[in-house]
């Protein structure tokens, strides 16, 4: 039996490898996942949530460059390496975009950057504020590959860090939906009768409520926040899993191996977890891939409505909300870039799901 299972697994894996778009999409998902985990390594602005604002350079086009003066605060940070790696650097220094500067005997005089041909204010900072009076290491040319948003934040950094929410909400939501869906679907399919009728009534009632409306209700009940959205989305996606599991178990519980397990005196828990569920794992993988994509879209919709991740946390849906009016103001890329990122990630999960469905289809 073990060799037979291994051969079926190998066969499905070979079929999946032959699907170019499935393999390519899986690579895209892997790259986005890697970037989202180590986003602060790749982000030009490694501050917390890439929230370093410079209002004088707001809404600048991709490729914009400016001189940036950093004035050290002298406050020592007690962050450790892992905190900076996964949560960003607590930046206490002051960053100022400048148009030009000159150095005197005891002070550095600079002119602040101003848009639209205006001349910025002229200000001074004492050289003593810089360690060892080394001001040169605190002035650098800053390049914004994706430009800046309406608050003057580096848009590329916000995109990279915003991928975390869109990517990880899929894992959390699918995990929650699998736990609830497997439990409810297994009980309904295996025991039938009144248990099945009761669970199907709950499923039908939940199914009849619009998903976005149900998520909003749960989110408002739990409160606005990062984890609340994850839990809310997960609690609305178990219905599809439960229906699939129920149907599969109704078919599987009449198979000979289940009858043999009952004859051997195994309890219901062992029959369901050790014998039935491993044999219906294929459809669960496919529906989980589809739920990944659905969770990303739901979270983006919530963030667009202002119920999802709250500022200053970066989220692709919130970035579209902040800049959708720029579509008619001549800078549509501010809304299109996060929209394309959402589309790419959702399409990748859908293509992987289709490839898995074809690979696990025993009829082919």
Automatic annotation (TrEMBL):
TM ranges: 20-43, 165-191, 198-220, 226-245, 276-298, 333-356
GO cellular-component term (any): plasma membrane
Residues in ABC transmembrane type-1 domain copies: 163-353
Alphabetical UniProt keywords: Membrane, Transmembrane, Transmembrane helix, Transport
Gene Ontology biological process terms from the UniProt entry: transmembrane transport
Keyword Membrane attributed: yes
Membrane topology of this protein: Multi-pass membrane protein
The protein's name in its UniProt record: ABC transporter permease
Native organism: Winogradskyella luteola
Upper classification of the organism: Bacteria, Pseudomonadati, Bacteroidota, Flavobacteriia, Flavobacteriales
């Amino acid at each position: 039996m073990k060799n037979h299972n291994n051969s079926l697994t190998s066969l499905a894996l070979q079929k999946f490898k032959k699907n170019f778009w499935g393999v390519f999409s899986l690579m895209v998902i892997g790259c986005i996942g890697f970037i989202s985990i180590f986003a602060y390594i790749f982000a030009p602005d490694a501050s917390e949530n890439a929230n370093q604002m410079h209002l004088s350079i707001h809404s600048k086009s991709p490729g914009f460059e400016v001189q940036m003066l950093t004035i050290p605060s002298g406050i020592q940070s007690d962050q450790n390496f892992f905190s900076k790696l996964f949560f960003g650097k607590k930046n206490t220094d002051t960053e100022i975009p400048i148009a030009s500067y000159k150095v005197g005997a005891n002070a550095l005089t600079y002119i602040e950057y101003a848009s639209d041909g205006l001349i910025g204010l002229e200000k001074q900072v004492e050289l003593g504020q810089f360690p060892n009076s080394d001001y040169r290491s605190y002035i650098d040319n800053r390049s914004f590959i994706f430009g800046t948003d309406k608050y003057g934040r580096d848009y590329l950094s916000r995109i990279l860090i915003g991928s975390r929410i869109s990517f990880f909400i899929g894992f959390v939501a699918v995990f929650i939906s699998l736990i609830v869906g497997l439990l409810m679907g297994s009980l309904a399919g295996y025991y039938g009768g009144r248990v099945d009728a009761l669970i199907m009534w709950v499923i039908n009632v939940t199914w009849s409520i619009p998903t976005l409306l149900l998520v909003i209700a749960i989110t408002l009940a739990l409160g606005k926040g990062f984890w609340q959205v994850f839990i809310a989305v997960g609690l609305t996606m178990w219905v599809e899993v439960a229906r699939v599991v129920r149907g599969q178990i109704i078919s599987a519980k009449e198979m000979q191996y289940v009858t043999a397990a009952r004859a051997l005196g195994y309890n219901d828990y062992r029959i369901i977890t050790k014998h039935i569920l491993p044999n219906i794992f294929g459809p669960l993988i496919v529906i989980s891939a589809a739920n990944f994509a659905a969770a990303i879209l739901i979270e983006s919709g919530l963030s667009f409505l202002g119920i999802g991740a709250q500022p200053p946390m970066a989220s692709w849906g919130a970035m579209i909300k902040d800049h959708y009016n720029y579509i008619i103001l001549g800078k549509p890329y501010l809304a299109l870039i996060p929209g394309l990122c959402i589309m790419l990630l959702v399409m990748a999960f859908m293509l992987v799901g289709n490839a898995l469905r074809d690979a696990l289809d025993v009829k082919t």
